[in-house]
# Entry
Amino acid sequence: MNTEVTNILVVGIGGQGVMTAADILATTALSLGYDVKKTEVAGMAQRGGVVTSHVRFGPKVYSPAIKPGDADLMLAFEPAEALRWCSHLKDEGQAMVNTFAQEPPVVSIGLFDYPENPIGKIREMGVNLHDLDAGTAAIELGDRRLINSIMLGAISDQLPFPAEQLEENLLNRFRHKGEEIVALNQKAFDLGRKAYA
Amino acid sequence: MNAVEPQAQDLRQFISGNEAVAQAARDANVKVAAAYPGTPSTEILEYVSNFPDIYSEWSINEKVSLEVAIGASLAGSRALCAMKHVGMNVASDAFMTQTLIGAIGGLVIVVADDVGLSSSQNEQDSRYWGRFAHLPVLEPSDAQEAYDMTRAAFGLSEQYEVPVIVRLTTRICHVKGVVINSEPESHTSAGFKKDPSRFVMVPGNAKNRIPMMMERDKVLKAFAEETELNRIEEGSDKRVGFVTSGAAYYHVKESFPDAPVIKLGFSCPAPIEKIRSFAEGVEKLVVIEEVEPLLETELRAAGVDVYGKDIVPKIGEMAPAVITPKVSKLIGETIAEAELIPTQQVFPRPPTMCVACPHLGIYYCLSHVKNTIISGDIGCYTLGAGHPWNALDTTISMGASLSVAQGLDKGRAESDENKNVLAVIGDSTFLHMGMQGLLDITYNKGNVTILLLDNRAVGMTGGQDAPSSGLNLHKEETMQVDFRKLCEALGVKPERIHEVNPYEMPVLFKALRQEVKIKEPSVIITNQPCVLTERYSKMPPLKVDMDKCTGCANCLDVGCPAILVDRRETVVKPNGKEKELAFVNIDTAACTGCNLCTKPCAPDAIIPAYNVTNIDAVEIK
# Structure
């Protein structure tokens, strides 16, 4: 068994399903018998703000928050958010980043600039970064909210438990919404998983 | 791979501190639970409302919620009320006297402090209330303890006949952890027993209760010294020992796992002697508490040598990254500078109003009215202080917009003679504490133009119901406040009350311009629902006809987050002056077709995104 605490940081913006993704990771770890803690900073999530969710699991977890420099894995739903939070990653930490950028109004109206090539910048800092355009893929599948399942699929082989466990927990969450939704999320998960098989 | 041995697998729940408190209320056989929504405590009552055996309500404000709970306690039943830290300020009038009466049925007040101000106007340490009112404060450190201590609080409340505070912080309320429930208990009310010398707090009676409260202090102090809620955890590294409570406990354990710790679950009154003897076994004693130097000050006064806020910050969370370097330095340990990835500067994502929010039209109008002082309030509309509207000049506390406006009017300088004083307040905030301000204005012949933004929801906390929505906590139909009649009853002349659709900006503008000129109180009620609630119905989305867009950027003044700048150009006008143009795009997937942005668009470049015949193909939810 893994005696260390695993730290997964999920970041993005309101409405992208960051908290749901973190919840699915957490409940998967719980179902495997781990001690789990999950904390969020989402004060203004419904209003376009930054959302970060910390998932920690292991034999015993104390603080719910991941220290800067302590995250094993960062799941970033937006490239500028990946740049904002990459300092939370460990030296040998991994990042999975959705390349689909979302500019806030403060950038659009010219008060601030969107960072140039955020993914390149993170790579330059030595982060083991994988990227995929989950945003476009989700829109092609018919619903932006599928980013969530695509991103979970993409990291499903990088976790200290089998991808199938995560998949099962993910799909269980959608069972009450009917088989069609389950099938769609299954498709999204597979798509993400294949991208990083 | 092998996971740890599953233990009582089916009993392990993964829930937040707020949900744990609700389950504890259920399992303690609480009869009445009341609250007014407020981050981070809102979800407690939402979870309680799922339990049919508990009477639960959204109260009008926190004072009312506490008084409802007090009544239930006096009736002999167990009662809980929940609030955020600033709610306790509102409730404190009842609170400070109830401590003299005490509790009959268990009376538990759950107060959630927003440490770090994720969604509040200040940062307060509610542990002070325990000292102020001479009653116990319990401090859970995680969801399991939120459950256990809420259960324990009811027992203590009845055993010592005292209201008990369970003090949470954001990191308890919103952190999910593993929780296992304990056996539910039953509680039977003995019924209301008249006891005027105890329940009627006139001076003669209250005076007699004060010595009893002092006696209770002694008993509680003795209990604090012996209870297992205050536990010592031995540690091998005795260079430093910690006194800690609440969320800070886990931060300490994370940072210094080998250090001895005295963890205070029952932190008021503090177990001073227990800490004193704990201190003898460690080289240095450090208090890590959120947020004020409270235990630290009490320990110093008792002659115990401690470190505390002299080495760690006086504000915000005591996170591992905050305390580790400070305490390591204290014990002369240099921590190897880990080669961290440097923090990257990225643009902020400040909260914005929602796409199609009815407040957008109101703030567009307000930002175009000259010569104003706009007194604001607590709610989504506080965002009107920001870009692009900059149309809000004060925000203080619930309901303050009206009374502060009265003061701004009466206290105006000669140089402000021509300024128009306005107040902006939402429906739920008006009912919470704003009505009194309006009555003060009408009674004292004030001159304030009031915008009452009735979106029929407590929007900022997620669209909860209020008497303005016509639904209660259980989504059952109930009375719905008639704001026109209410304002009339509070003394506003009928002809000075206007009900306006905020999406009809010209009408709103006209009403505003007319009323600011009239030197008496007037109320403009806007009547469209919060877009986060089911009442709001989306319309077909819009797009920009790029051939028609002239780059004037007028639509950006609406402030809708679905309008994005596509490209910028600088042109030279015939008079030789440079002009910045911004050509826009509409995020059609986000747009709900409210049409607000079409109003300031002179070239009519904003048009339906889809042919009307095609509308069935558009996903509208």
Observations:
- The beta strands of chain A are 6-13, 35-41, 50-58, 71-76, 89-98, 128-132.
